[in-house]
Design brief:
This protein has a six-stranded parallel sheet with strand order 4-5-6-7-8-9. Strands 1-2-3 form a three-stranded parallel sheet. It is globular. It is of the alpha/beta class. α5 runs parallel beside α6 and α6 runs parallel beside α7. The protein has 16 helices and nine strands.
Length: about 350
Amino acid sequence: MHPKSPNYQRIATEEAFAPPELLEAYRKIIARGNVDPGFNGLMGFYMTSPSDRAKHIMRCLTDMDELRIQHMDECGIDRQVLAMTSPGVQVMDKDDAVAFAKVGNDFLADAVKRHPTRFTGMISVAPQDPAAAAKEIERGVTQLGMNAIVINSHTKGEYLSDQKFWDILAAAEAHDAPIYLHPNSLPKNMIEPFQEAGLDGAIYGFGVETGLHAMRIITSGAFDRFPKLRMIIGHMGEALPFWMYRLNYMHRATVASKRYESMKPIKKTPGDYLKENFYITNSGVAWEPAIKFSQQVLGVDRVLYAMDYPYQHQLDEVIALDNMDMSMEDKKKFFQTNAETVFKIR
């Protein structure tokens, strides 16, 4: 049992859950056949594998009471910010996705009401219907008391850089609700060389694809259209902070070359948008050098703690981060106050 800290709360900001009905819906999708290979390779595996890891994840995803809180207490986690597990509703047909987003949000809101000091929720939406997604963002903020949105990267191979999705960005900006851009299994036109090497999942493919999505949004000009829009990306920013110099240089060079019709000038550098419109969490990366580097280049107010429960659930990682060589003021921002600001936790 890891004790609570006297100096800060530990708020974990990328923690997954699944209503039991979601897993049942996934089983029906898989049973129909002709399934997206990324979804089948990920959730199809975890829902059927007899491995201890798979069984642990499936058990923990659906528990919103005693087991989850027991695991939080064992690691000294004061609060989880919860998001419906990837791919959420984004693998469903449009009408089913719109309907189930509401079911999932109500399920989560009920859990938050049962445990208001332990849980905070993120709004799930169906990008398949951008207008309905915008309405669900409004309902989530004004009626359910949630102040952030989760979108599991691509939706059937389509990205938020496409202006047909910009009703979602407009609603997020209007309600001052950041979008957590969370990984998804790779789209079918991308997955094969990753999957054949076992690199399609969290080990590498998730970060590549989600970082791609973030860069597509940046280079599309979305933040020029929606300058107050905020986004969050996990796993130490899906490596983008470490690439920032080259992203800036090559974006400028590519625009100047006029090589791509899709690559138009934007008002700022990609790095400026990363520093001004994005927050990152360290989910899955309990590594002091990476955290400090990201604080240095993005700002100490832009880097938040996350565990990635139940996919990554390690007490020793919490202890290592408690022991970082960092001022108590900055450590409190990392573990607590940045999350309180971003997710409006009171």
